[in-house]
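tokens incoming
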């Protein structure tokens, strides 16, 4: 059988359909360990370096179970194609390589309808390679976006498929873990780009300042988006309440934990802000449905593979954090669980502020890899494991 290719969206479909195949990642061990394909369900994956196939072909082929369906991944595409040709030569019948390499998995966006009623449609765009979510809200022929990624064409094509014009794009904060698409989308479509001055005032992003408590609406519907400042993860962190029903929480409220306040190098100062915002969140309607900016793993998803949970259950799930009743204890919790942020985060912030721009290849490099934005009990867990 001839070697053929597949796309990242095909891989996600196969994984969520629980099809029986082997993912063969032929990148080096370091890159594989840093970032690899993850799925809502268990699947078979092995890492055998492309260089091993070059230097010890027979031994490398022997590590791939005979007769299995193989889907190969590499950094860019060529290495996967090379290994695929070797496997076909050795009698493997169903072998495909990922077009464009691992970066296409990293940039993949999966649209999921959250709700459609009363003249509006709310979508969650899941980015499996980043464990992040962006959002689209449409009414009539207009659409608003929240925290779009740099995969600009996806959002433009999606809006077009819904016969919508993008009228506004919002940022919940100045992102550090991925390169945002709001500025470019605004430039290409004429949409308004809204951001909080707490993060964007000293940038060249070209934002319109958000105002706490303001409400944003569409031309021909009662659907409204209320602005709620929730500083802490960053000074300008903002949440958006859609029709008093949904909370697009950015990196403030996660299904697992809260957004970490130490990424700006001011852990104590920002922890104070985060604590105040946490108290504010606890006073909200517990039936509000939280739509987070990130997730830790697929265990947080619903049966429909949506990342959405009512605030009451979110608070209960994270009661060890939400039960902290003093500012000092909260600061101690943050300090006990601090961990080094990825080096590329500083450069990503510069890119998102339009203070420095990088060529597309560098942007791909910066943008690849899972987020590390939650204030988890990581450090404490590491101490317990070492004890």
């Amino acid at each position: 059988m001839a070697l053929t290719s597949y796309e990242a969206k095909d891989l996600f479909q196969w994984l969520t359909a629980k099809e029986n195949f082997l993912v063969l990642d032929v990148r080096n061990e370091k890159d594989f360990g840093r970032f690899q394909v993850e799925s809502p369900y268990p699947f078979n994956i092995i890492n055998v370096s492309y260089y091993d196939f070059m230097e010890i072909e027979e031994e490398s082929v022997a590590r791939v179970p005979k007769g299995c369906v193989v889907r190969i991944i590499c950094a860019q595409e060529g290495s996967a194609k090379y290994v695929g040709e070797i496997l076909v030569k050795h009698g493997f019948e169903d072998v495909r390589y990922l077009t464009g390499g691992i970066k296409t998995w990293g940039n993949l966006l999966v649209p999921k309808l959250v709700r459609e009623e009363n003249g509006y449609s709310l979508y969650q765009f899941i980015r499996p390679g980043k464990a992040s979510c962006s959002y689209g809200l449409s009414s009539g022929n207009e659409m608003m976006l929240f925290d779009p990624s740099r995969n600009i064409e996806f959002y433009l094509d999606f809006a077009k498929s819904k016969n919508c014009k993008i009228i506004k794009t919002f940022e919940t904060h100045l992102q550090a873990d991925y390169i945002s698409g709001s500025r470019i989308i605004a430039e290409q479509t004429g949409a308004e780009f809204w951001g909080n001055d707490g993060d964007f005032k000293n940038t060249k992003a070209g934002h319109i300042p958000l105002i706490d408590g303001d409400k944003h609406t569409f031309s021909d519907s009662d659907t409204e988006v209320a602005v709620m400042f929730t500083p802490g993860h960053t000074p300008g962190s903002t949440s958006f309440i859609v029709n008093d029903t949904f909370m697009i929480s950015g990196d403030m409220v996660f299904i697992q934990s809260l957004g970490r306040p130490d990424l700006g190098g001011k852990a104590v100062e920002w922890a104070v802000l985060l604590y105040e915002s946490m108290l504010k969140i606890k006073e909200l309607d517990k039936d509000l449905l939280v739509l987070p900016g990130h997730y830790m793993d697929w265990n947080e998803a619903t049966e429909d593979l949506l990342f959405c949970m009512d605030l009451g259950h979110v608070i209960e799930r994270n009661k060890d954090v939400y039960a902290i009743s003093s500012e000092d204890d909260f600061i101690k919790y943050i300090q006990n669980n601090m961990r080094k942020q990825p080096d590329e985060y500083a450069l990503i912030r510069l890119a998102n502020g339009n203070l420095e721009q990088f060529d597309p290849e560098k942007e791909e490099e910066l943008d690849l890899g899972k987020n590390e934005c939650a204030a988890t009990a990581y450090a404490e867990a590491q101490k317990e494991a070492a004890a």
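note: The domain at 4-104 is CATH 3.40.250.10 (Oxidized Rhodanese; domain 1).
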